Amino acid sequence: LAATLPVFGAEGQTLSRAGGMSLGGLPTGRPEGPSASPRCPTARLVRGTGSGGRVCSTTPRKQVQQDPPPKAGATERRPIKPSEFRRYYDRGDLPIQVQHTGIQNKILWKVTVDKLDYHHYLPMFFDGLREKEDPYRFLAIEGTYNMLENGGSKILPVVPQLIIPLKAALNTRDTEVIVTTLKVLQALVLSGDMIGEALVPYYRQLLPVLNIFKQHTTSTYDEIDYGQRK
Q: What does 12-72 look like in DSSP terms, one character per residue?
């Protein structure tokens, strides 16, 4: 009770036991009231309600220009490395040459096609399908078609050796090379019995690139694309 009783100082000033005013009428330096006590819960400020430490600016914020996300480049053309077909032709190890005629060029075989070693020559001709420079491109494509037409039963045992050249041609991501490879694949399947079934275990090597390009088509709307190659 003694702590709550008022204390009368000189000249009639009332002082509290907690302090606030000295007997001489000068301030003691301690604030009055229960809220000034550091132990009082009402003396604490709620986070974010104070005014100290805030920085205000009237300058408008600059808009940061963000770059668009980069392209994946899944359909972009890859660098084409020289094939083994080119190396063997430049060295003179292939029994073929170009026959120049008045209408169009033809391939001239130095030996009979059905007497060739298909295990050696057919994968080599398939490896030349990714060439885009003549005469390598012309000789590889025409030679492949000629061997498929005259191969018969020799083609089926060579199918596992053709997967790596076909995959290399498809992985170039070149549309012209891909179209040529697909036409050769059609001729390969039609060249003998059970060849299509022999390709089934190798779908995981051949189909991923085709899956990328299955919707990669150029829409011409109502126009006619006269640049299509027959």
A: G-EE-TT-SB-TTS-B-SS--SGGGSTTSGGGSPPTT---TT-----SPPPPPPPPPPPP-
- The model's pLDDT over 148-200, given as tens digits with 9 standing for 90+, comes to 998 888 899 999 999 999 999 999 998 899 999 999 999 999 988 899 999 99
Residue 73 Ramachandran class (φ > 0 left, ψ -120 to 50 alpha, else beta) = left
The helix or strand, by DSSP H or E, that contains position 212, with its residue range, turns out to be helix 203-213
Number of other residues whose CB lies within 10 A of the CB of residue 79:
5
Q: Which amino acid is at 1?
A: L
**Is 191 strand, coil or helix?**
coil
Cα–Cα distance measured from residue 42 to residue 195, given in angstroms and rounded to the nearest whole number? 89
